[in-house]
């Protein structure tokens, strides 16, 4: 399936484009390599106030490198990264950026309250510690030593760090890893409140169902480039395929089903057939043309996860065929 990658940047769902609000973050022709490995290639990207943006990509796509560049933890080999019109480090020193990262261990032998209180005290625009603990779901374990926390509780402490002050941009790297379902719901409820207050939220995640449910905008990275940028619905439409499922009685001719027109994938499990097609009408018509009588026929659009896989697989195939 051939697709055209896009690096067009918009601000869907935020009103930023119509109000003329300046970008919170801007990447301009940014490149970053580690030895012979190119992590980021000519990356152009802009984020705007009040939008919640999901950063997706397979392993090695450049997500972590892009976040490191945004936070001033790495410097680009070429190109420019601006945060609130200045360098990332200056923006962070001014308290305009809060971050929740996977890397780095938490200070041990101190209580949750002591550690979160330190973050609030150090932030130029720090919030009251009790407010931060409550928001992060930590009030009930505030007196517990940090080294006695579960993985999900540690994630909530990192979330408290990211929201310890009135930052205008919150950057989250795999924020809900290790959290249970209730904690995830609480976390994203808090993030929605942050966005309503005009803060920009950027999060990298492998949980595509969260990106689908939460993000105003989805950016798909592939080998250091922006492959797709738009709303979740636009990303799904970009994949161009639909799902067809039905059940068959009698013997199943796998070869005949595999030769159906417009097919991008077929899976047969027992009596159930699941198909991905770029032209559902043609495929269904051909099914009946084989003399088959499908039961429980359903035609639906791809979910974000299936669309993500279709887009990235197609990009990989196009690159390999061009070699």
UniProtKB/TrEMBL annotation:
Region feature (Disordered)? 1-21
Q: Which Gene3D superfamilies match?
A: P-loop containing nucleotide triphosphate hydrolases (3.40.50.300)
Task: Using the UniProt record, give the first listed, main subcellular location.
Answer: membrane
The protein's matches in PROSITE patterns, at most eight in alphabetical order, are given as: ABC_TRANSPORTER_2 (PS50893)
Checking Pfam families in the record gives: ABC_tran (PF00005)
Query: Which BP terms in the Gene Ontology apply to this protein?
Result: response to antibiotic
Q: InterPro entries annotated for this entry?
A: AAA+_ATPase (IPR003593), ABC_transporter-like_ATP-bd (IPR003439), ABC_transporter_ATP-binding (IPR050763), P-loop_NTPase (IPR027417)
Compartments, record wording: Cell membrane
- In the UniProt record, the signal sequence range is none
Annotated source species: Streptomyces malaysiensis
Q: Write down the SMART domains for this protein, in alphabetical order.
A: AAA (SM00382)
Q: Name one GO molecular function term.
A: ATP hydrolysis activity
Q: Which UniProt keywords apply?
A: Antibiotic resistance, ATP-binding, Nucleotide-binding, Transport
What is the protein's name according to its record?
A: ABC transporter domain-containing protein
- Membrane topology category: Peripheral membrane protein
One GO cellular component this record assigns the protein to is: plasma membrane
- The ABC transporter domain sits at 25-248
